[in-house]
Amino acid sequence: MIYLLRADLACGHIGLNKINNHMGEAMGVEPAEDFRSQAKLRARGHLFEDFTEGEVFHHHWGRTITETDNTLFSTLTLSFNPQYYNREYAKAHGHKDTVVNPLFVFNVVLGLSVEDLSEIGGPFLGVFDLTYHQPVYPGDTITARSTTLEKRVSNSNPNNGIVTWHTEGFNQNGERVIDYKRTNLCRKRNSEKLVP
Amino acid sequence: MTLPPDMQKLTGNDSYFEDFEEGQVIRHARGKTIENLENVLFTNLTMNTAQGHFNEHAMAGTPFGQRLSYGGCNFSVVMGLASQDTCENAIAELGMDKIRLKNPVFHGDTVYAYSQVLEKKDAARDDAGEVRFKHWGVNQDDKVVFEGERRVLIKRKSHWLEG
Fold it and tell me: Does B18 reside within a domain?
């Protein structure tokens, strides 16, 4: 029995190798001898020069918020309002389900915006004029959009810029659930990196 | 609207709109140490792609020398630490303003929360009022890491504890 199993495995390996070699020849792909030296960085993120006042970013991915997200975030941050994790309590306040912690909604919308706005530029300095427009419930899908409001060179360090965006989050019905303004330090090209 | 009596017992009875006084400053009872569980989890869970929050190796080569905790994580924890005393009986969060991240937070740092009641006012509905708080987050070395304002719609005892 053991011999039989080994024989099966051996056949399986030989079979796979043959298939791989065959595919390689057919597609004309030579394996990279030194894949590191051949690899080109597919860079992500934007720097100061990339931003134009008035430009709109439709951020990637979107995110359906689950009950697990909400309970995990609310309990780990010690957000002790029962509407976030006690469905019966939330319903007694006129909601159809538990209410998603608004701070979680904020963090999801900000998270979706990071690659376009702030992934490589520098740290986030502040958030202003944030309004929660309506509740978000588990199962709602959030998408995000930002507009560049202002860019300027930092007075204290001319290697850096300061950029302010207006970011908005929407639910699956296109209703705006949150909006805020955010300001970040934003590195200029060829200046010293603050973050990787 | 009133809640069934059993449900009224789920939250404290000293954090209704009537209980807050303008100018009052609260030091909240609990602190929290920020680690992977907070920073890396919240950063990745919200698909924040800035690897300075989750790539220790890349950060070793920067002046910080280690991962930086994501600012949204830091102030979410601070606002959470303040929540039982300030918005346990809130109907809704209305907004935030003047959020400033004043010092970095690293894994292993502990944050504590303080709040001040800046303003109380009537709301559009008569069973609740609006309170504007200022919150501060302070680390284990007494450095302010965060400050910001938050507007909350809070139940009035007079309406919600009847019946």
Answer: no
